[in-house]
Amino acid sequence: MGNAIRALVAFIPADHCQKYVVGELQEMPLDRMVDLSGRQLRRFPVHVCTFSELVKLYLSDNHLNSLPPELGQLQNLQILALDFNNKLCDLPNELRLLQNLRTLWIEANCLTRLPDVVCELSLLKTLHAGSNALRLLPGQLQRLRELRTIWLSGNLLSDFPRVLLHMPFLEVIDVDQNNIRYFPSLTHLSSLKLVIYDHNPCRNAPKVAKGVHRVGRWAEETPEPDPRKARRYALAREESQESQTPALPLPLLPPSS
Fold first, then answer.
1. Ranges of Basic and acidic residues compositional bias (predicted)?
2. How far from 122 is each of 111, 152, 249, CA to CA, in Å?
3. Residue 251 belongs to a domain
């Protein structure tokens, strides 16, 4: 039934569609959350920005291609989900006014760069920016000292983002499904708990501190191949086995007469 309604709404002219799906939102919900995901919206519902006490706003899986400056009025917002809009290519500068934002979903859009305004969200803890067309990350990202989790899978990264090496407070780094060929050491990232690097054409696994979980080639069970190390290990093992081989007892000589 849900799919049938969505299909029907898709044929309604944009203005009528907008009124149909958000017309009931005359007052801010008691739970301070608005969920308009999957409503075939083509324009951001600006009147939602009058709900100044709003804490959670979900606009996932729509057809938005821009966001209005009025978004900056939602200064109590903690969660903003804009993922799977596909046509969203940038974020407004007014987003910097959302200084209480903890979680931002911008996954599965048309971002070719991470907007600089994201680096001004000082309390941001979780950033979902996968499935875009990002090739690098801005150096200003290291300003986000509250950031703990960053999801970057399915982008166009050819190098591991250097800025992440200067963010020791990160706990989760996901760079799955990119074009990274070489991983630098991550052993100095003292807060790191999980790094996901699978589906990259890498020739090495990222080195991590003890206790950090890795997901990718040569991760936990299979050692990273290194022919020289493997040869040295084999020789050392052979020498060790030889040194541990017990000496054969000397034959007993008959007593002399």
1. 217-228
2. 21, 19, 75
3. no
Q: Which domain holds residue 203?
A: 167-221
- Do 129 and 111 meet the contact criterion of CB atoms below 8 Å apart? yes
Residue 125 lies in a domain: no
pTM of the entire predicted model: 0.78
Tokens of 106: 């911008």
Residue 207 within any structural domain of the chain: yes
Residue 218 falls in which region: left (phi positive, over 0), alpha (psi -120 to 50) or beta: left
From first to last of its 257 residues, what are the pLDDT tens digits of the chain? Answer: 344 434 434 434 444 445 545 556 778 888 999 999 999 999 999 999 999 999 999 999 999 999 999 999 999 999 999 999 998 999 999 999 999 999 999 999 999 999 999 999 999 999 999 999 999 999 999 999 999 999 999 999 999 999 999 999 999 999 999 999 999 999 999 999 999 999 999 999 999 999 999 999 888 655 555 544 444 444 555 555 555 555 545 455 555 54
Total domain count, the chain: 1
Q: Is residue 248 part of a domain?
A: no
Residue 39: how many CB atoms within 10 A of its CB? 21
